[in-house]
Design brief:
Number of strands: 0
Distance between the termini: 50 Å
Structural class: mainly alpha
Radius of gyration: 21 Å
């Protein structure tokens, strides 16, 4: 669309797609006639917040998964902040080629279909370690595109990342749902999501600063190095001991 319609019109069309989502949501009709169950008395917000934090910090498994996920997200957000600039300004790919590359490599999402089978076959701990390692080290292929044919290398790197991340997420979320009591699951989820997604704006800002000071390619390498620091979080006994049927303690 950028290649044929221009960037400005593409943004307009993208905006319209969000408006369509709003209209379809407003068109939904929900039957409110059913009586709602009485809500149990809730503890004060700060008490519930401390409970959610305690679920994670008191668990040798979850403190490591949270640390690994947040570290990986920080690194990949640094990388993504300059990735399109790398494709356009350094590799001189056209918008159409860059878009096709991103679209085709995102077919790696099909890895999500195999996540349950992989988790059962290799165990939760090993699955988390392998998917994180493959995702992190595949990012080293990105700067390699400077000296070899760029499209195959970029495709392999992006396909690996888009395949491994859903498998990692499905595996650890399934473990979370099995191992954390239902009464505390929402609070633990809120705490975990705040941490692991809260690093995205930090990484994006840091990537922008690094890209403007040390350059685009060094920033790609820096982001990759940061993602690799997620691996040691998982190379620990509590994670390696996990099995598909095990529960976090």
């Amino acid at each position: 669309m950028i290649a044929f319609l221009g960037a400005a019109l593409t943004i307009v069309i993208d905006t319209v797609s969000y408006l369509v989502s709003i209209v379809t949501l407003l068109a939904m009709r929900v039957d409110d006639a059913q009586p709602r169950p009485a809500r149990a008395a809730r503890a004060p917000f700060l008490v519930e917040l401390r409970q959610g934090v305690a679920v994670l910090t008191n668990s040798p498994v979850w403190i490591r998964i949270v640390g690994a996920t947040a570290t990986f997200n920080l690194g990949i957000s640094i990388t993504l902040s300059v990735y399109l600039l790398y494709l356009y300004r350094v590799l001189h790919l056209s918008p159409a080629v860059a878009g096709a590359l991103l679209a085709v490599s995102n077919l790696g999402f099909a890895g999500a279909f195999f996540a349950p089978r992989i988790g059962r076959r290799f165990g939760v701990g090993r699955t988390l370690v392998v998917t994180t390692t493959l995702s992190a080290f595949s990012q080293f292929l990105l700067p390699l595109a400077l000296v070899v044919a760029p499209l195959p290398v970029l495709f392999i790197a992006e396909l690996t990342i888009t395949a491994c991340i859903p498998i990692y997420n499905i595996t650890q979320i399934s473990l979370r749902q099995r191992s954390i009591p239902a009464a505390l699951l929402g609070r633990a989820n809120a705490t975990l999501r705040t941490i692991v997604t809260g690093v995205f704006p930090v990484g994006t800002l840091l990537g922008g600063v690094l890209g403007g000071t040390i350059g685009i390619v060094p920033t790609l390498v820096a982001g990759t190095v940061v993602t690799c620091f997620a691996i040691p979080w998982l190379l620990t006994k509590p994670i390696r001991a996990l099995r598909a049927e095990s529960q976090a303690t």
